[in-house]
Every structure is written in structure tokens, then in C-alpha cells.
Write a structure and sequence with these properties.
The protein has 14 helices and 36 strands. It is α+β, with helices and mostly antiparallel strands. It has four domains: 43 residues; 177 residues, no CATH class; 126 residues, Ubiquitin-like (UB roll) (Roll); 235 residues, no CATH class. A four-stranded antiparallel sheet has the order 22-30-29-23. Strands 2-1-6 form a three-stranded mixed sheet. Strands 4-3-11 form a three-stranded mixed sheet. A hairpin with a 2-residue loop joins strand 34 and strand 35. Helix 9 packs across helix 10. The radius of gyration is 55 Å and the shape is elongated. The termini are far apart.
């Protein structure tokens, strides 16, 4: 018993160091685990824990921003096969890209970052260890971007769209051509969107075997046309339309008719299409406007002779009302006639009053004083030349020019022909003086030009003669005419009418023109004429004329020097200069020409 008691303390003493070392080892290991866990946690502070992935993309060790960048680049996976859409033989492909698929990257990164950080510490460590040992995969799938896909469908719809085209009948060069209609085609975006959405959603979830998506196309078929209704329409297009305006007729030819008439389809209650005529009123209005002058009758102004003693007019020729087509009303009536198949249409024509009625009084026209006067001498002229001077002067007698209007000498006198009473006399023809109809008419235009010139009225057109004409006195103030190419024109810029009155003194051989009206209150200053660049005429020219008796010499051209003549006219109203114009006349030198009979001795040069 003593021995047993003696050995017990020795056993206890043997176990005590072992327990101490065991406790020390366990404590150290625990401390190591805690420190390691602390350091490991510090290492992944603000980072995704190892083993965490989204889909097939590992995000362990990445910050939130780094994980977001990595995942954004990775989805959608490339290359994902596009989704095919089709319609008949047409094919299109919708790419499975970010333009049409949206992946929830931010939500997935947030889920990955929360692994091992949410819940109790025990749960957090369980998630961390499980992710480290076995991995933690978060699934991801895209969703369809409805806005992007619809925008693509609307673009496709514009390429597919075709409007409904009803059948037509047109007339070309007198021939009728039938154009069949064509159905409309339009993409049903809503229905197609439903189909395409499911296909793209399946692609976003990883499905590869997706059948093509059939587009939903809507359309309306054209209505059939009753060709029997075309017979009357075609007949109208191939016939002219007669137009009557008072006592004048004109035809709207088939070409013009076809320009303004069109055949358009009209849907009927029986779901067919009849041919219906319609009128292009704008084009018809343009055509009638171009024809208006041919229909119109221009009014004729009265020609009046003024007697200052009585302050009264004597009517030389009465005025005459004119008329003109009323184009707007005519367009309506012609359009109606075309649609009704009429062969003749009466079109309205309204009256046009003359500018100078024969009932006017001097007070009404402002004729009360002389505002301009010009004079030339025709003494020594041949009887034929005098006759032509009188004839042309009487042709402009009593012409009244309204304010703002332009007077044309050629229009007032008319054609210079034998039929109008003119005789043969000497005229300037090219580079020589020759016998022709109307010699002496230029004396009338020259005299009237001088009256207008000294009245201070604007000269619109004026030409000098080719060489100096002795009948007109000092050169520089002449005006030649040659209808219809060379004219003399001026403008009435006074506030009243102008009456042209010639005075023919056959005894003295003097022609005077007076312009009656109302003084405009301006003054006229004339500087010149001045002569420069004077060129002496060439030596005389002798030409044999078999018609002359032997020993006879006859002069037919007289020598005239060539020169440039300048005349300056200044028109003032008070201190205001209204016009300051220089009139330049250039005359070529003119040689003397003699005709002699056969055998005549010609003077030596």
C-alpha cells in the first residue's frame, strides 16, 4: 500500500508537461489560424474573394471596378451567332451584340462582391472557404434591348415598304398604255418584334440552334380595273377642244389636252377600279395664259388734234374698247368642259378700256401747253420725198402718250411700204445712197427727236445716220429709223399725257413737231454740238452708166467729211440734276460719186 501511494505523484508529474505543451500547441495553432484569417481577410479587403466567378469569368482578387471592367469586356461572348430573319428569298441577320443584348453586369459584380461579406461571421467564413475550395459561380444571362431592336426593325421596314399602286391608263404619243397595279407591302413591326424578341432572348441565354425568324408582312392587293370604262376617256384624250372667245376661235390640240388630263383610278362599291379623269388646273392655267394674247383684242387709243384757241380736241380716229381672256374663270370652264366631254367651250373675256378714250378732254389729259418743239427744213426735196414726209408726219399726228409709257416711232408709223402709201425716193442703203421706198421718213423721226430732246424727255433708243445728211443742218441731232430693226423711242416721264402734233409748211419746206402736255418744271441746258476726229472724204468716184447719153455727167453722191459729234444735255429741276447725258454721233466720211455716159471724158483726179 505504501508503495502504491508512493508512486502516484510521480505519474501526475509526468502528465503535467504533456498537457502544458498540448495546450501551448493548440493555443499557438489557434493564434496562427486567427492571424492567418485576419491577414487573408485584409488581403482581400475591397476585393472579390478567390474562387468567385460570374458565368465563366473568374473575378477573384479583383476590386469592384476591376471586376466590372473584366465582366463588361467578356459579355456578350464573341462570337455569338447572329439571329437570322427572312421573308421569301430575302435574308437579314441581327447580330447578337451589345446593340441588341444587354447584360446585367453591375448586378452580377455586386453579387460577386457580396460573397463572404453578408450574414453572420460563420456564414461569411463558410462562403469564403467554400468559394476557395470548390468555387462559387454566379450565373449571368443577357436580356434583349427592346429600343435597339425596334430601331433596327423600323429601318428594315423602310426598305421593305412599297405603297399600293392602283392600275393606271396613260396616253403617250396618241397611244393608250395600261399599267397594272401592284400590291402594297409593309412590315408589321409589332408582330415581328414579338418573334425576334424570343429568338434573341434564347441567344442571350446561350442557345445556339435557333431557327430563322419569319418577318410578318402585310399588304393590300390592287383592285381590278374595268377597262370598259376607258373607252369614253380615251376618246376625249385623242380629240381637240375648240375654245371660243367672243368672235374668235382657237383649238386646244390633243397634245395640250393630254398634258392637262390625267386618268386616275377610282375605287367603286364593287371593289373594282374605274378610270376617272382629273384636270391639272395649274398646268391648264399656264397653257391658257400663253394663249391669252392670241385671244385678246387690244384696245385702240384715240388720236386727237388739239386746238389751243378753243382748248378742245378734234377726234382724228376714235378709240376702240378691247377685251382679254379672264384666265381664272376660263380655267374653270375649260376644266369642266374637258371632264364633261364637250367639243367646244365658250370662255369668258372681259373688256379692256383704251388708255386714251375719244371722250377725253384736254383738262382730263393735262394737255394745256407746249413742252417741247423741234424743226427741220426739207426745202428742195423731190416731190416723192415731200410726199413721204407728209405721209409719215400724218401717221404720228394726234398720238397721245400716257404718263410712264414708251413711244415707238416704228409702232406709230407702221410698215414703210408702197401698200401704206409711201413712194420711191433716195435713202441710205448700206454704204451708198439708193432709191428705195420711204425716202424722207428719217426727216420726220429726226424732227420729232429734236422736239423730245429739247423737252428733256429720256431717250430710250436713237441712232444717227451713217453719214452727215445736209437736210438736217448741223450734225449731231438726227435720228434714223429702219423698221423693224432701227427705231426711235422715248419715255413720257411728265405727270400728264403728251400729244404729238406735226405742223407741215409746204410753202417754206419746214417740218415742225410740238409736244403738248403739262410742264414738268425742269429746265434743259444743251452744250454743243462739238466736232472732233474730223476726216476728209475720199476723192470723187466716177462710174460709167450705160443708161446716160454720151458726154453726160451726173452727180449722185455729195462729199461729206467724217467726224464724231458730241452733244451734252443737262436736265435740272431747281438745283437738282435729273439727267446729265452725252449723245455721241459717229459719221463716216462720204465721197462724191458721179455717173457718166459712154465715151464721156472724165475729169482728171
Amino acid at each position: 500500500m505504501k508503495n502504491m501511494d508512493a508512486t502516484r505523484p510521480r505519474g501526475r508529474r509526468a502528465r503535467a508537461p504533456f498537457l502544458s505543451w498540448l495546450l501551448l500547441w493548440v493555443g499557438g495553432l489557434a493564434a496562427l489560424v486567427v492571424v492567418s484569417a485576419f491577414l487573408w481577410t485584409r488581403q482581400y479587403d475591397r476585393r472579390v474573394f478567390p474562387g468567385v466567378s460570374v458565368g465563366i469569368v473568374s473575378l477573384g482578387g479583383h476590386t469592384w471596378e476591376g471586376a466590372h471592367t473584366r465582366l463588361t469586356k467578356a459579355y456578350p461572348h464573341e462570337p455569338l451567332p447572329p439571329v437570322q430573319v427572312q421573308w421569301g428569298e430575302h435574308r437579314w441577320w441581327v447580330p447578337a451584340t451589345r446593340a441588341f443584348l444587354v447584360y446585367p453586369v453591375e448586378d452580377s459584380v455586386e453579387q460577386a462582391y457580396e460573397i463572404g461579406r453578408v450574414g453572420s461571421p460563420q456564414r461569411q467564413w463558410q462562403e469564403r472557404i467554400h468559394a476557395l475550395m470548390h468555387g462559387h459561380r454566379i450565373p449571368i444571362s443577357g436580356r434583349v434591348d427592346a429600343r435597339g431592336v425596334r430601331a433596327w426593325l423600323y429601318t428594315l421596314a423602310t426598305r421593305i415598304y412599297r405603297p399600293l399602286r392602283e392600275p393606271e391608263v396613260i396616253v403617250e404619243e396618241g397611244r393608250v398604255r395600261y399599267i397594272p397595279g401592284a400590291p402594297s407591302q409593309e412590315l408589321d413591326v409589332d408582330q415581328t418584334w414579338q418573334r425576334l424578341y424570343h429568338a434573341l432572348q434564347a441567344r442571350a441565354q446561350g442557345r445556339l440552334n435557333i431557327p430563322p425568324v419569319e418577318l410578318v408582312i402585310r399588304g393590300v392587293a390592287p383592285s381590278p380595273m374595268d377597262t370598259r370604262a376607258l373607252e369614253n376617256v380615251i376618246q376625249r384624250l385623242l380629240e381637240p377642244l375648240r375654245l371660243k372667245a367672243r368672235d374668235r376661235y382657237l383649238a386646244l390640240d390633243p397634245v395640250a389636252v393630254r398634258q392637262v388630263l390625267t386618268i386616275t383610278p377610282k375605287r367603286t362599291s364593287t371593289h373594282s377600279v374605274d378610270a376617272q379623269l382629273s384636270v391639272d388646273r395649274e398646268r391648264l392655267h399656264t397653257i391658257l395664259t400663253s394663249l391669252a394674247d392670241r385671244y385678246a383684242r387690244q384696245p385702240v387709243d384715240a388720236r386727237l388734234d388739239y386746238d389751243p384757241q378753243r382748248d378742245a380736241f378734234t377726234v382724228i380716229s376714235p378709240s376702240l374698247d378691247g377685251w382679254a381672256m379672264e384666265v381664272d374663270k376660263a380655267t374653270d370652264q375649260v376644266a369642266q368642259g374637258l371632264l364633261q366631254g364637250q367639243q367646244e367651250v365658250s370662255i369668258p373675256a372681259g373688256p379692256v378700256a383704251p388708255r386714251v378714250p375719244d371722250t377725253a378732254t384736254p383738262a382730263q389729259l393735262g394737255i394745256r401747253e407746249i413742252v417741247g418743239e423741234g424743226q427741220t427744213s426739207f426745202r428742195g426735196s423731190s416731190p416723192a420725198r415731200v410726199h413721204n414726209i407728209v405721209r409719215a408726219a400724218e401717221a404720228v399726228r394726234g398720238v397721245v402718250v400716257p404718263p410712264g409709257e414708251i413711244f415707238s416711232f416704228n409702232d406709230a408709223v407702221g410698215a414703210i411700204t408702197a401698200a401704206n402709201g409711201y413712194e420711191d425716193s433716195l435713202i441710205i442703203w448700206g454704204d451708198q445712197t439708193a432709191v428705195g421706198i420711204g425716202g424722207g421718213v428719217c426727216q420726220v423721226s429726226t424732227t420729232l427727236f429734236r422736239a423730245v430732246f429739247f423737252a428733256g424727255l429720256p431717250i430710250i433708243e436713237r441712232w444717227n445716220h451713217g453719214y452727215i445728211v445736209s437736210w438736217y443742218g448741223e450734225p449731231g441731232l438726227d435720228a434714223t429709223v429702219f423698221s423693224p430693226y432701227v427705231d426711235f423711242k422715248f419715255k413720257n416721264t411728265t405727270p400728264a399725257y403728251l400729244l404729238i402734233q406735226p405742223i407741215i409748211d409746204l410753202d417754206r419746206g419746214v417740218l415742225t413737231f410740238r409736244l403738248w402736255g403739262t410742264s414738268p418744271g425742269w429746265t434743259v441746258e444743251v452744250i454743243g454740238p462739238t466736232q472732233e476726229d474730223v476726216v476728209q472724204p475720199p476723192p470723187p468716184l466716177y462710174k460709167e452708166d450705160p443708161a446716160l447719153p454720151p458726154g453726160t455727167i451726173r452727180q449722185v453722191e455729195w462729199a461729206k467729211p467724217g467726224m464724231t459729234v458730241r452733244v451734252r444735255r443737262i436736265v435740272r429741276r431747281g438745283d437738282e440734276v435729273i439727267e446729265d447725258e452725252e449723245f455721241v454721233s459717229r459719221y463716216q466720211p462720204w465721197r462724191a460719186v458721179f455717173l457718166y455716159g459712154p465715151g464721156t471724158e472724165v475729169p482728171k483726179k
